[in-house]
Amino acid sequence: MTNRIGVPPCINKYYILDLQPDNSVVRYMVSQGHTVFLVSWKNPDTSMDRITWDDYVGTGVLEAIRVTQEISQQDKINILGFCVGGTLVSTALAVLAARKDDAIESLTLLTTLLDFTDTGILDVFIDESLVNLREKSIGGAEGRYGLLSG
Questions:
Q1: Annotated catalytic residue: which of 83, 84, 89, 93?
Q2: Predicted pLDDT at 125
Q3: Can you tell me the distance from the alpha carbon of 143 to that of 135, in angstroms, rounded to the nearest whole number?
Q4: Residue 124 — φ and ψ, nearest 5°?
Q5: What is the DSSP string of 77-129?
Q6: Does one domain contain both 121 and 74?
């Protein structure tokens, strides 16, 4: 039996991968003989105003890999990343590669953006003036941290 970790976007709950019986990535993977583990992201609050991308990678994805290995008592893990969850997974795999750690047997990415130099149609909605406006209204402006003010 193989193990698979599902990493949803940090803006969604884990059940985005398990919506209903006929629309469930989890159900399909279980039917194929996988034991499935899912990352469940915490709702951020002001106590997390200094959390960084590296924190999501380290205490999120890398810790999920470690815990899955520990519970399953298997060294090799299959991992699936969805949307920005896949971007986090890809970053974590780069960290593992730098450490010469081959814990991941396979990687599956769903709707994951990896090359941010060409965002395609998103460029229609985002330009430098919009980025500047958002930076003034969310954390990071005037030395503050966090994604949202408050």
A1: 83
A2: 79
A3: 11
A4: -65, -30
A5: EEEEEETHHHHHHHHHHHHHHHTT---EEEEEEES----TT--GGGGGT--HH
A6: no
- 94 and 143 in a single domain? The answer is no
| pLDDT for res 49 | 79
Q: Are residues 106 and 143 in the same domain?
A: no
Residue 66 shares a structural domain with residue 131: no
pTM for the full predicted model: 0.83
User: Which conformational region is residue 30 in: left (phi greater than 0), alpha (psi within -120 to 50 degrees), or beta?
Assistant: alpha
Note the pLDDT tens digit of each residue in 113-135.
898 887 778 778 788 888 777 77
What's the mean pLDDT in 37-57?
Answer: 90
Domain extent at residue 37:
2-114
Both structure tokens of 4? 């698979």
The answer to whether residues 19 and 68 belong to one domain is yes
At residue 96, the pLDDT reads 98
> Among this protein's residues, is 83 annotated catalytic?
yes
CATH number at residue 14: 3.40.50.1820
3-class DSSP assignment, residue 54: helix
Count of domains forming the chain? 2
